[in-house]
Recover the amino acids of this structure.
């Protein structure tokens, strides 16, 4: 990795409460923020902006979105006042042509998949942040190819951050349960596939597996990983700085490229 090239990062964000709690995951995110080269901007692909078509936030001051319910007032009142970066949004549109990327000036902002992590990694909210949405209509390969196109931003000091969960089955959750066998087997398959050179990439069909479908009844928390894996140059180290499965069926695995 060159001195200027930023790593790319997928973070298992888990419960929104991680944004205000002091636990092993929130502390690990704080440590990541201290260890990584300081980015000049952050581009987040969050599971919680799952759209028809692709869009990018382009407002100067994105709002903090509290896209959850039945949590403590402290969490609902939490703000993350990072600035936006309209010029970076325009650059993303240019890079992704001929894919049409809508410019969002007022609808979205920073959802909890974004600020919930960044509030721990960069608590001063002093790095500009934009979000790129996930087009629900596209196949896995589409999301991977977008990641490949966005790779050049890493050489411009931009941290590409995917936010989701490798295993995300909330209906199956049991508080305090040990990891379910299908959650362990799917997470292990993902780990073994991260540095695959096969074409098509084995993660494209990961959710067709029995353990993949159990681990992700819907795909939106898995797909951000494909953007991050798409930025891998086939030579950089790939590591897992955060690990753990909570309540049987929620993987907190984080994956770092570079």
């Amino acid at each position: 990795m060159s001195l200027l090239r930023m790593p790319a990062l997928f973070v298992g964000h888990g419960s929104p409460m991680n944004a205000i709690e002091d636990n092993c995951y929130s502390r690990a995110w704080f440590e990541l923020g201290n260890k990584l080269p300081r980015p000049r901007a952050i581009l987040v692909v969050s599971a919680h902006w799952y759209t028809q078509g692709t869009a990018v936030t382009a407002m100067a001051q994105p709002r903090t979105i509290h896209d959850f319910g039945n949590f403590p007032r402290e969490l609902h009142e939490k703000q993350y006042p990072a600035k936006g970066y309209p010029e970076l949004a325009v650059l993303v549109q240019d890079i992704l042509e001929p894919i049409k990327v809508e410019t969002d000036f007022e609808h979205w902002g920073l959802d909890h998949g974004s600020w919930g992590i960044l509030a721990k990694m960069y608590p001063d909210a002093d790095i500009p942040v934009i979000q790129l949405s996930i087009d629900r209509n596209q196949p896995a390969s589409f999301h991977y190819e977008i990641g490949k196109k966005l790779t050049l931003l890493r050489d411009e000091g931009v941290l590409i951050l995917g936010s989701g969960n490798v295993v995300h089955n909330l209906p199956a959750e049991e508080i305090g349960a040990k990891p379910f066998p299908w959650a362990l087997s799917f997470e292990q398959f993902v780990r073994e596939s991260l540095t695959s050179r096969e074409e098509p990439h084995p993660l494209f069909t990961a959710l067709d597996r029995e353990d993949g479908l159990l681990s992700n009844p819907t795909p939106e928390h898995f797909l951000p990983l494909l953007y991050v894996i798409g930025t891998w140059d086939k030579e950089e180290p790939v590591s897992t700085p955060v690990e753990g499965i909570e309540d049987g069926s929620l993987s907190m695995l984080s994956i770092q490229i570079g």
In short: The chain has eight helices and twelve strands. The two ends are 6 Å apart (CA to CA). The helical segments are 24-35, 73-76, 86-96, 112-121, 140-150, 181-193, 210-215, 224-229.
